[in-house]
Amino acid sequence: MKKEMKIGNVDIPGKGVLAPLAGITDLPFRLLCKEQGAALVYTEMISSEGLVRGQKGSREMMETRPEERPVAFQIFGKRPDAMAEAARVAASSGADIVDINMGCPVRKVVSSGSGAALLKDVREAERLIKAVVKACPAPVTVKIRTGWGASDFVAVELARAAEAVGAAAVAVHGRHASQGFSGAADWTAIRAVKDAVGIPVIGNGDVLSGHDAKRMLDETGCDFVMIGRGALGNPWLFREVDAYVGKDGPASAPSVKERGETLLRHLEMVVERRGEAVGVRMMRKHAAWYSKGLPGSPEFRRTINSACTASGFRQAAQEFFS
Fold this sequence. Notes:
- The chain starts with a strand and ends with a helix.
- A hairpin with a 2-residue loop joins strand 1 and strand 2.
- The protein contains 14 helices and ten strands.
- It has helices at residues 27-35, 48-52, 56-60, 80-92, 107-110, 122-135, 155-164, 187-196, 210-220, 237-245, 256-274, 276-290, 297-305, 310-321; strands at residues 5-7, 10-12, 16-18, 40-47, 71-76, 97-102, 140-145, 169-173, 201-204, 224-227.
- Helix 7 packs parallel to helix 8 (187-196), helix 11 runs antiparallel to helix 14 and helix 13 (297-305) packs antiparallel against helix 14 (310-321).
- The chain is 45% helix and 15% strand.
- Strands 3-4-5-6-7-8-9-10 form an eight-stranded parallel barrel, surrounded by seven helices.
- The protein has two domains: 5-245, TIM Barrel; 256-321, Putative flavin oxidoreducatase, domain 2 (Non-ribosomal Peptide Synthetase Peptidyl Carrier Protein, Chain A, Orthogonal Bundle), CATH 1.10.1200.80.
């Protein structure tokens, strides 16, 4: 049973949220996760500068379909005016929610003063959020980490600042930026933010199963659970979250056949959007995730990594998953 809540004026029909993942959460992957119960899906992070300049690649990342809604478009940048304009563009292009990335620790992003670099100056981050909220007709959310380093805990201060200037929700990844994705996520930081603000809080970090999601909800009091790496090759994780949260017990795991059929559907959607050559290259990493843990998966990965055509990819997948 799903308990519906709102972020701003947007109904969120469940607890499991697909995290924004660069190079992963494109339209095909979002649609597959939505089919399996994701209550809210996020795009890859989109450059505000790219949107303002009308760059084709940035615009293409905003492609959406009615069946994936509600959908959040995540934007990143450091200039408040550019972020405000990008938020307007995102909202007019179909975003139900516009999210500000203040958590990406990748060097290319933080070296430009964007992403997690904004954790270094809460007042500057607050000014940026305020500019986006003022300009954007859709609800604005913010994705943060606990701070820049282990001794720089700013999550509570920043969440309160975001709420004060009109943010509709905040997502908290329980790691500091310097950790990247190493070590264990600190869920007590999510609890601290939840206790400090009145807007919805989305917990993020180390949710790899329905049991993990239920435990995060219980331990932190967060309103939603954001799933990133746990969904790679496993969109069924969202139906598992629904089962645990709805007290129905564990959901049935996907069969080998279902894994293979979903991989091939995923392939067709990506090839349709990106073309055969690019689509096949993009799907190699997904094939590795879909086959993880199955007997013979190392040999399958080697075969897939040499596939250059959709027909060759399809044949290898059909043989392996049969």
